[in-house]
Amino acid sequence: MGPKWIDEKTIVITGANSGIGRELTKLFIMKNNCRVIGVGRKEEKFLSLIEELGDKKDNFEYRLFDVSVEAEWQKFATEMEERAVSVVINNAGVLPKFRTVSGSIENFSCEEYMRTMDINYNSIVYSTYYMSPIVEKNLNPAFVNIASSSGLCPLAGMATYSASKSAVKNFTEVMRLEKDYYVGLVCPGFTKTEIFREQKGNMDKGLINFIATDLDKMAYKIYRGIIRKKKRMVFGFDAKIMDIGYRWFPRLMPKLFTSVLKSAKIELFDDVFDGNDRGRE
């Protein structure tokens, strides 16, 4: 295969210290000789990533800051003004605990809602605002925003997360209409990453583990989609079902998914369905 548009580009990847962001970092460095500037908050994870890169470690550098803080983006953009950053991949995200928005006040936290929106959505607004002038000065500019299948179809217990990812989806699709360069949207389904660390229980067994995609497979699908400049990427069996099902049956599919999750008695959703049952007593 001939040279790819992304070969040897300088890429900023948020959330590059773990999960999908970490795997994408390795893929772009190893396969395309890119220079990646990773953004995250845990230095020890970046140091271990550098070790994994081996002979390619000089292709990677990192910055420690909170993507949910606008002032941090402004400071970062000022530092990047003289750098040839061509691509920004907004990957950082957080998944709050699954819980119902109704019932007692313990079931829904306004503070948690704002934190989720700040990290999952507002960070992308800040990234776009401050990094666009830098990216657009270079050849083959691109923004890629990672949303979620939860932004395609509502699921019980995921109101806050779904709202944040729906915002990412719509923001990205509008951005694509307004820009004359590549703007990609990624909506992955359940993936076996550390994003579930705040959840009750785990993914080691049961329905979620069965439908979830392995991290390396999901990252490679996203990587392939980006180098092919795919505008809308929906990856994972569950994501495809949610996408197609909700578009064709917008009233039926959310109820169907809810019934499946409830009948499967998944520990991750205990607080959601137990809370609903208590509310009916």
Looking at this protein, list some descriptive labels:
281 residues, seven-stranded parallel beta sheet, 10 helices, 48% helix, globular
Task: Write a brief caption for the model.
With 281 residues, the protein is α/β, with parallel strands linked by helices.
Helix content: 40-55%
Q: Overall 3D geometry?
A: globular
SSE succession: EHEHEHEHEHEHHEHHH
Distance between the termini: 64 Å
Number of strands: 7
Structural class: alpha/beta
Averaged pLDDT? 87
**Low-confidence stretches at least 5 residues in length (pLDDT < 50)?**
275-281
Number of helices: 10
Assess the beta-strand content as a share of residues: 5-15%
Q: What Rg, in angstroms, do the CA atoms define?
A: 19 Å
Please state how the strands of the largest beta sheet are arranged side by side: 3-2-1-4-5-6-7
Q: Biggest sheet: strands, sense, closure?
A: 7 strands, parallel
Give an account of the 3D structure.
- By secondary structure, the protein is an alpha/beta fold.
- Helix content is 48%, strand content 14%.
- A seven-stranded parallel β-sheet has the order 3-2-1-4-5-6-7, with helices on both faces.
- The termini are far apart.
- Mean pLDDT is 87; it is low at 275-281.
